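Q: what does this look like with adenosine-5'-triphosphate bound?
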Amino acid sequence: MSTEPPSKNDFIRQIIQEDRRTGKRHGRVQTRFPPEPNGFLHIGHAKSINLNFGLAKDFEGRCFLRFDDTNPATEDELFIRSIQEDVRWLGFDWGVDLRFASDYFDAIYEHAEGLIKAGKAFVDDLTSDQMRELRGVPGVPGKESPHRNRSVEENLDLFRRMKAGEFPDGSRTLRAKIDMASPNFNMRDPVLYRIKRQPHPKTGTKWVIYPMYDYAHALSDAIEKTTHSICTLEFEDHRPLYDWSIDAIPGALGIDPAERPNQYEFARMEVTYLLTSKRKLKELVETKTVAGWDDPRMPTIAGMRRRGVPAAAFRDFCDRTGVAKAAQMVEIELLDHCIREELDRTAPRVMVVTKPLKVTIETIAAGETISLEAPFHPSNPDMGSRKVALSRDLVIEETDFMMDPPKKFFRLGPGREVRLRYGPIIKCERVVTDAGGNVVELVCSHDPSSMPGAGGEPRKVKGVIHWVSREHGIATEVRNYDRLFAVPNPADVEEGEDFKKNLNPNSLEVLPNALAEASLAGSKPGATFQFERLGYYVVDPDTRPDKLVMNRTVGLRDSWAKEQTKD
Ligand code: ATP
Ligand code: MG
């Protein structure tokens, strides 16, 4: 894989181009993203959003956001809201094209009556267990239901009474009359409607029968005049039913055969170390293994946003990984690379000390402040600069000092020198320890002639460290997030084992006593920064007036780009 984003030319775009060349559907392109509102969106959904909305953008078409709300038992307003927020945040806009499958419940019901009248559907009284028994096994045809040959009148009457609520939940279904001998199980008289007394977020108690996903989905596409219905490979075997549903009654729902949608399948995208199973993500939330759907360690869009991942990095990642038919397992290092590349361009550089060690510069008078000029970006002068205050009383990282440093340690040690970033060279004159022998303070001197802009040839020392003036700094809590799972395939466990055994026990380190430079005052949640020498960070919504809370997005080291340049 190259480090450059590919020019988009996947098999779906090729199909669309060919359709446009031949004038199919007058060249019209209309896609949809059809989430089920039963959880938050994750990075796999971002892939589908980027594809569907991206196609609409590239081919000047439309993309509908359509909630597949055919299963009221698991759906929730919270998810409907979060999904809209996430799609918008990713940079896409459905305009006026927001729909719910439930918008079409009346039309779908009418269509189902049409199927009955055409002799293509029947009401069955079998229980789901009985149905399973008759369904057959691969290579062996199933058996027809004893109710399959009911008359149209009887079927219509029973179906209407199902709708009217005359029968208990699960006691009857409407089934398509297709072929119990089909090698494709989806075609062995699939259930189209079931009875379920469950209030629905949109339609309330109006319905006690609900259409099944495959049927409702195909009809929703047709009603909306979708052109290219793109889904993931697990629906490949459902395509004959998709086509059957749309074509069973010619001319129904005003569908022009030349305009009917076609389904195309691509491979789901999986990413190492991340889970893309809603069921498992839900389990992490419900067992309080994470703080919520938007925990910064979650592979949800909301979680990754809170982690500081820019929307542009998501889109870039989705584009670079392409659209393919073959199963796709992408290395998380590529995602991290896309994040770093975007943040490297956009994040202002600042200094934050995460594990402070007190430093006193005895050559600076108490109360004196030296104002130093520091650019926000090393190669983009348009980002401007800020003043950083240097005073007698500073903090540096604990790890930038060693009592007995090895030769290659170019930071501070007794009697050693180091440059303060944007400031002078300091020398460690004395080390103050507490009763337990722990280092609690360094007393240093500074060399005024080494001050930036002091004139003359600047004196060079090997080490440069970041620092913050104690009296000017801002109290900060730093949350260093790491991967939620310790293994590349967290879902890969033995039968009966819990995938949670693969959790990384060190996925969060909280550093409550960090100190940030003054320029971070008033930063709003979502603002991203590069903490010099440490990594990329984002302001967390938990930030309070008296405490900044910063989440680590990624560290600075890009192992992926390094791999690519190796020969
Ligand atoms: P489930 O249906 O089991 O709840 P789902 O992941 O299929 O989970 P949906 O809300 O039905 O969730 O998905 C909406 C759309 O996102 C579907 O078209 C689906 O194919 C697509 N999608 C989901 N996961 C991925 C993935 N990992 N890669 C690409 N597309 C995905
Ligand atoms: Mg699904």
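The first strand starts at residue 30 and ends at 33. The chain has a mean pLDDT of 95.
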